[in-house]
Amino acid sequence: MKQVPVGVSARHIHLSKEHIEALFGKGYELKEMKALSQPGQFAAEETVAVIGTKGKFDKVRILGPARGATQLEVSRTDAFALGVNPPVRESGNIEGTPGIKIVGPAGEIEIDKGVIVAARHIHFHTSDAEKWGIQNHQSLRVRVGGERGLVFENVVARVHETYALDMHIDTDEANASGAKTGDMAEILD
Amino acid sequence: MKQVPVGVSARHIHLSKEHIEALFGKGYELKEMKALSQPGQFAAEETVAVIGTKGKFDKVRILGPARGATQLEVSRTDAFALGVNPPVRESGNIEGTPGIKIVGPAGEIEIDKGVIVAARHIHFHTSDAEKWGIQNHQSLRVRVGGERGLVFENVVARVHETYALDMHIDTDEANASGAKTGDMAEILD
Q: What PANTHER family has UniProt attached to this entry (chains A, B) (predicted)?
């Protein structure tokens, strides 16, 4: 049985170095609050506000370290509340996605793209993927059990030697399935 | 292929005759705004506020006609926002569920039970169920396709000669699967 732990991702933002400086001040560095399951990734102490045409979220957690491009990941529920209509995308694939206004303590910016609903995915260390015969970018079916049990289709495999085994779903997917961080899911095929 | 249309249920409330009077005044009758897919059921013009320990919703749609017992149906997302922890239940099965404060234009009440997250279910007219060999209360697996496609397990069959064929999921389930009202889902078994 190919079992993977579930990690539920609440709304969060990745910022470019340039945008960190625009929002927090010149030379600013994010402070690590908590390490995440993927090695080197962390939840920062800092948050920003994001403001859409219909609503806003005052405290959106920043995940570090800085990335090449700023990216806001929200659930579909969040997207309705903000008044933005992002597509379901793999992280990093932001061409043609909507932008949004972001406010920090030292400034505000308006990004012209970068808002996505993250496509559910599993991070595999290269050794896990080899053991189970799974290729990078393969589409998987993954079952979560329980009273709201379901089988997620189109779960994207992401394989890298820096990854730790973890399946990432968003809060809508967690609420619909009853799955919580640390629950185990099963890869069917 | 056993295909059923999907109906997405947003948060809503059913009220007893006694509670309609407590909230709207003696002898008050709900006004029909829009007929629902189930014959005789309607969305009323009236709304109420529901107030939890953490948050509130100002305009929760009342579905009529009056029922024997008051029942508030919310998504898990809504439940977190309100600060209430309802179980997943079939409609009408409210023993041991949490209560909540409900406010109308003529009064307010505090119910001691009745808040549920509705178990996903399919309404079958008796003739549909017979044709497909489906029993009342049978647990089904139902597939929704598309980019966020998934297979819902534990979908409850509800069979009655007054029902029209319709699969009811809540907003979390709709957002997680990408399914919209009017989309078709397929009963697998």
A: PHOSPHATE PROPANOYLTRANSFERASE (PTHR39453:SF1)
